[in-house]
Amino acid sequence: MKNYKYIGILVLAWLFTLPATAQLGEERHNFAVGINGGLNMNSVSFDPKIKQNTLNGMEMGVTMRYMSEKYFKMMCGVQMEINYSQRGWSEKIEDGSGNTYSRTMNYVEIPLLAHLAFGKDALNRGVKFFINAGPQIGFFLSDKEEMSDNWDTSQRPNGVTEQYGKAVENKFDYGIAAGAGLELSTGIGHFLLEGRYYMGLGDFYKSTKKDYFGRSAHSYIGVRATYLFDITK
User: What region holds the Outer membrane protein beta-barrel domain (predicted)?
Assistant: First the structure.
């Protein structure tokens, strides 16, 4: 996991320093705000491993974007969001008991993303392709466990049951988010459709040598739609 952290830091550093190293471009001062909403397909990376199905959760929030410059056909900016995000996991229990278990975990998350767009200028109408990438932090709010009525953990083939009823120990989350999508700019605003991946680098359970779990990190693939309207051009 340390290698992933180093690679992520290098990629993010390159994205955020790209405008500074490129040739001087056309200045932009386009600030837009709006709302976003979508679906997260969640899982958790556990060590020891826990078999899982995808747990779907909603995500919604506000988006703020500042486009600063244009280099040839690439437009550069920064995008920040404040979102309510549902995460967690759903277990794939194959012990013949018919048990089901899932935990939905609610977070406020704040991604700060480099925004690179290609195609029609954001000031004009048209379609363009964009890439978002950057760090993301989150703050745990609450969670809810759901299990079947005939709950019985005596037949678990891998013997991993420590997670049941275990409270979140680390409420601060951090990781790397990256996505890509299409934007349609019109006379009434900007409409964006994006697919995004989040890889958590922090664990929500303690992970020292004396703790049971060595890894408990969120990840999700999300699909979201965003509407932005211009404040300044």
Answer: 22-204
Residue type, position 89, single letter? W
Task: Give CA–CA dist 113/198, Å, rounded.
Answer: 12
Q: Using a cut of 0.70, tell me whether the model's pTM lies above it.
A: yes
Mean pLDDT, all residues of the chain: 88
> pLDDT (tens digit, 9 = 90+) per residue, 151-170?
998 888 788 999 999 999 99
CA 183 to chain centre: 19
For residues 13 and 132, give the distance between their C-alpha atoms in angstroms, rounded to a whole number: 13
* Beta bridge pairs of residue 137: 110, 174
Instruction: Average the pLDDT over each of 115-119, 153-157, 226-230 and give the range with the smallest value.
Output: 153-157
Count Cα neighbours of 51 within 13 Å in the Cβ-side half-sphere. 9
**140 CB burial (10 A radius; 0-12, 13-18, 19+):** middle
Closest CA to 38 of 229, 230, 180, 223: 223
**Tokens 């890889």 sit on residue:** 199
Residues in the chain: 233
Mean pLDDT of the region 195-224: 96
Q: Count up the domains in the chain and report the number.
A: 1
The dihedral sign for the CA sequence 155, 142, 179, 218: negative
CA angle (45, 195, 37) in 5-degree steps: 95
Q: Is 6 helix (H, G, I), strand (E, B) or coil?
A: helix
Please, are residues 120 and 74 in contact by the beta-carbon 8 Å criterion?
no
State the residue range of the domain holding 87: 2-232
Neighbours of 24 (CB within 10 A): 8
Q: What is the CATH number of the domain that holds 225?
A: 2.40.160.20
